[in-house]
Design goal:
By secondary structure, the chain is α/β, with parallel strands linked by helices. Among the domains are: 5-156, 3-Layer(aba) Sandwich (Rossmann fold), CATH 3.40.50; 164-242, no CATH class. Helix content is 63%, strand content 7%. It contains 21 helices and seven strands. The chain has helices at 25-39, 58-66, 79-91, 109-112, 133-144, 152-156, 165-191, 193-201, 211-223, 227-233, 239-242, 245-257, 261-275, 279-298, 302-322, 327-339, 347-364, 369-381, 385-397, 402-421, 427-440, and strands spanning 5-9, 14-16, 22-24, 43-46, 69-73, 96-101, 117-119. It has a five-stranded parallel beta sheet, with helices on both faces. Strands 2-3 form a two-stranded antiparallel sheet. α4 (109-112) links the parallel β6 and β7 (117-119). The chain is globular, with a radius of gyration of 25 Å. The termini are far apart.
Length: 441
């Protein structure tokens, strides 16, 4: 009797992940995935090399649809693999196992909440044999035969694929309802916390509400600086939504703003450990250390403050190095390097890289408040009055939420105070700072 087939969806050859980790996918298949499948009593079947070029042929569709089992490696965010996974999830409610190599960076948002099994990669790009994951994968493949639904389509869309007209009408009603709630949240953010809370009360239970609405509610509490409400909202969300990178990052931000810095640090470090380095995760973690530095500095504990300042700088640098397109952690690193006594000489080279990053984003992307605020801060750092005034006008025109301007004013104050302490003339820097403060008040 022939063993059931297990189709393997994964890249070929050696690839470098977004975090810079080298992965030898051929070794991953030969030394880890293939033996695990065989150990589970299945027959491994990997896509032919010529089918990895972007065009899916009839045999590929047949394998995706008809193979009783599938293993999908998401490590390098390969476009072909994600397309194939989408096809598989649309036609097979269960028996699809997801894998990813630890330390390869965050999984894309759409699959971040799905249950995926991590495995370890050694310095040579080959799977780490001592991790015990081979037996674990084999066991999970054996368990999957008991028809536990793993496709998010079958989990979340009731009655799929038998979608009747009546159900599409219900779906249309839900979309209309969600859009209406979002419009109400826009208005509530302008009114204050009580207005946002009133909308939350009609969404109970939150775990059954549309994810986009729950996230909008979550960020609306952030807009009105209701940090404790943000924290309290997370356990009310559906379990998959709770574990997404966005929610965990913003939970870390809220915990820190609410004065729970140690909890914030724990949440963010655990997120980085599980999902890999990210400019946003490290940027928020950098703010945790920055706040600790300022508290130690203000209390007169200079030795502790010095150590925390270095820790904040290095954390922001890790965030910028994770994605040089995101200038936010970069400008924070440069600002703290300027404040440090003596100033960190690395800031001189870093200035130009951060300026390039934010200017490219403004040219090719959709610039927001933080892009213009970054230009303003950089202009102040390099003592360019003309550019600072120009950037300030864009900052004032793009303010969305009061806490954003508070952050910018705070950074400008830190720069001004450090230079004032050195005896510099800070007349125009003070004027820029006061202009920002006038918007807050």
């Amino acid at each position: 009797m022939l063993n059931p087939l297990c189709f393997v969806l994964m890249p070929f050859g050696k690839k470098t992940s977004q975090s810079g980790l080298l992965i030898d996918f051929d070794s991953v298949y030969d030394e880890f995935i293939k033996p695990s499948i065989q150990q589970a009593g299945l027959e491994p079947l990997r896509a032919d090399e010529e089918m990895g070029g972007g065009i899916i042929h009839k045999p590929m569709f047949e394998r995706l649809i008809l193979c009783e089992y599938a293993v999908c490696d998401l490590s390098s965010a390969n476009a072909n693999v994600f397309y194939e996974l989408g096809v598989r999830h649309a036609v097979r409610p269960f028996t699809t196992m997801l894998l990813y190599a630890e330390g390869t960076g965050q999984l894309p948002f759409d699959v971040a909440a799905l249950r995926a099994m991590p495995y370890q990669i050694g310095p040579d790009g080959r799977p780490f044999s001592g991790s015990g994951t081979q037996a674990l994968l084999a066991e999970k493949l054996k368990e999957s035969r008991y028809a536990r639904t793993d496709s998010p389509i079958y989990q979340l869309v009731e009655g799929f694929p038998d979608i009747q007209h009546l159900k599409t009408d219900v779906f249309r009603d839900r979309v209309d309802y969600s859009q209406n709630v979002k419009r109400q949240l826009v208005s509530a953010r302008k009114t204050g916390r009580d207005a946002v809370s009133a909308i939350e009360s009609v969404l109970v239970p939150l775990e059954n509400a549309e994810s986009a609405v729950v996230i909008d509610l979550f960020l609306s509490y952030r807009s009105v600086k209701a940090w404790d409400a943000m924290i309290d909202l997370v356990p009310k969300m559906s379990p998959p939504l709770q574990t997404t990178v966005l929610v965990q990052e913003q939970l870390g931000l809220a915990l820190n703003r609410a004065g729970h810095g140690e909890e914030a640090e724990h949440v963010l470090l655990e997120l980085i450990n599980k999902r890999g380095p990210s400019s946003e995760s490290y940027g928020i973690l950098g703010r945790v250390y920055k706040d600790r530095w300022e508290a130690a500095h203000n209390s007169g504990n200079s030795i502790l403050a010095s150590g925390l300042l270095v820790k904040a700088i290095e954390t922001y640098l890790k965030g910028f190095e994770a994605d040089w397109r995101d200038a936010y952690p970069g400008v924070n690193a440069v600002t703290l390097m300027e404040i440090k006594e003596p100033p960190d000489i690395r800031r001189i080279q870093l200035f130009h890289v951060v300026i390039y990053a934010v200017k490219r984003r403004i040219v090719v992307g959709k610039p927001d408040y933080w892009d213009y605020a970054t230009l303003l801060e950089l202009a102040v750092l390099i003592k360019n009055n003309e550019d600072a005034v120009s950037a300030l006008s864009s900052v004032l025109a793009n303010v969305r939420e009061p806490w954003e301007m508070e952050t910018t004013a705070r950074n400008l104050r830190l720069i001004r105070e450090a230079r004032e302490h050195r005896g510099d003339d800070v007349t125009w820097e003070r004027q820029i700072e006061q202009a920002c403060c006038s918007i807050i008040s």
